[in-house]
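Exam revision sheet. Question 4 asks you to relate a sequence to its structure. Input first:
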Amino acid sequence: RRRLGDEVHVSLSHEAVGTFREYERAATTEVDAAVSPLVGRYLRRLAERCAEAGLPRPQVLQSSGGVCALEVAAARGATTVLSGPAGGAAAAAIVSKTTDEPDLLCFDMGGTSCDVLVVAGGRVRETGGGAIGGRPIALPTVDIHTVGAGGGSIAWADAGGALRVGPRSAGAVPGPAAYGGGGTEPTVTDAHVVLGVLTPDVPLAGGVSLDVAAARDAVGRLARATGLELLACARGILRVADAEMARALRVMTVERGVDPRGFALLAYGGAGGLHAAGLAARLGIGRVLVPRAGGVLSALGLAAAERRTDVARTVLLRGDAITPEALAGTTVARAGERIERAYDLRYAGQAFELTVRSGTTDPAVLRRAFDAAHRERYGFDDPDAVLELVTVRETVRGDAPTVTLGSGGDGTTTAGPAVVRLDGATVVVPRGWTAGTDDHGTLHLVADDAVPAPAPWEDEA
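Answer key, structure tokens:
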């Protein structure tokens, strides 16, 4: 750095990643070296333009769901590469608190994809790393599973004549055929228009007026190719899209040993409310939440995210070497900050670790917590095995801005079947569901029966 000067960005692995496993560390450093110069130049230009306009210096959202100073993001671009859906995670935590729903299964359905994440016990579930371009990123990341099913996802027929949806998308341009932007391929949005769920008398966000004839033409061509009647084809498109998203929801719950029926479903993104109740029914969930600002909830989360810094160091201690001093960490909180610690632990002989969040510095207490976590994850524990402490993780959290989700409703409820229009979102209330608004403007859908009723395109021939 001294030789090259400030004009050349240098990524050093001990700064990019403070933990072991050399491949992941090298890959993360490679990504950091690739993106930091680009991110840095963009952010510095942004800061200059904000200063010229008299605006405050912006902060930047990280993949962890917290924000950092612009200078930090410019120097460590790898911390931002998976930050796109993280704003929704920050907002989901706010919704969890304001609705007193500590356990939320969340899905963000936009135009191209559906992102699924989990809030458990009021906390967004995180992971120690993600991947981009086939390269692992060994940095804290919101635990998100993504599938190619969104409002603009294109429906098509495979070689056997079966309906498929995605991952190709019509995007914003040309967009679904119904948007009148020149799109001709049938999308999930077009199927909703054909079925009358979305109607031209109510313009979409941004003042988009729907072209019903164009939607019918696009879906009609696919119907003829598959030998289906027009409405049956539209219903089939929505069923396939729901199946894809339900599979993603199961990946984050059932495949990890979690029963989704104990959660409420939080739907956001512009298309989330259209599919929320139907997806909940597929998973046996009887409660659905759709925030009033559901279409832009991720943006709200970005504005309300807390300041956050993550520090991790590999220590590789075992048995009696795991002392209170080793567990105490090295970070000192400043005024308005709080520190949370987590420990990557394993039994001697294991190749991978489990992360246990705990504020304790008592090795015996931490051991019991790890045994319980191992038993929950793998179905067994081994209290007699030698314990290894691999990594100590510290997260410094600052205060977050106070936000208001919206004002309350008038106490009225709506029984399905119905379509409820919100700001930037449309919500389908199927037969057998009842919708009402809470004090914060969040729409609550509750199933009338123990077995939730399906979406209307599921129970119609």
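Marking note for examiners. The chain has eleven helices and 23 strands.
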